[in-house]
Design goal:
Elements (H helix, E strand, L loop, with lengths): L11 E6 L9 E8 L13 E8 L12 E8 L20 E2 L14 H4 L5 H6 L7
Antiparallel strand pairs: 1-3, 2-4, 2-5, 3-4
InterPro entries: DUF6009
Protein name: Transcription factor
Length: 133
């Protein structure tokens, strides 16, 4: 399950990837307030931006701030792609999804791959399954 719902993404027309996501088990995603509908946004987090969403012409700016809600995809310095034996050797951050499940207007979801392997015995006991993607 993603923390971002589809209704927040209805104006997305394209996802732009700044690097190949094929080797990434997961990416973090957030909805950022940005001054434009298109183009590469400024990035102010630790780590690196790996992609962003582009909004269509019908997207309206928030009246109070004049900004647009756009998705930004990123990785922190301690994520699995950089530290495979680190904190996320298994499991994944709450805001992360498998990049293969993302599309414009679709929030994406976690998979066995994004979670770092097959389901744990506790998940199996509870009958919880994740897609393989």
């Amino acid at each position: 399950m993603s923390l971002i719902n589809e209704s927040s993404l209805c104006h997305e027309v394209e996802l732009v990837w700044l690097e190949d996501t094929e080797g990434l088990d997961y990416v973090r995603q957030s909805l950022d307030r940005l001054p434009t509908r298109r183009g590469k946004p400024a990035y102010h987090r630790d780590g690196r931006m790996v992609g962003y969403a582009v909004l269509g012409r019908t997207a309206k700016a928030a009246p109070a701030s004049g900004t647009f809600h756009r998705r930004v995809f990123w990785l922190a310095p301690h994520d699995r792609d950089t530290l495979p034996d680190g904190e996320y050797s298994t499991g994944a951050p709450l805001e992360s999804v498998d990049p293969r499940t993302l599309a414009p207007g679709k929030p994406g979801h976690k998979t066995e791959r994004s979670e770092g392997g097959p389901p744990s015995p506790a998940m199996v006991a509870l009958g919880i399954t994740l897609p393989k993607a």
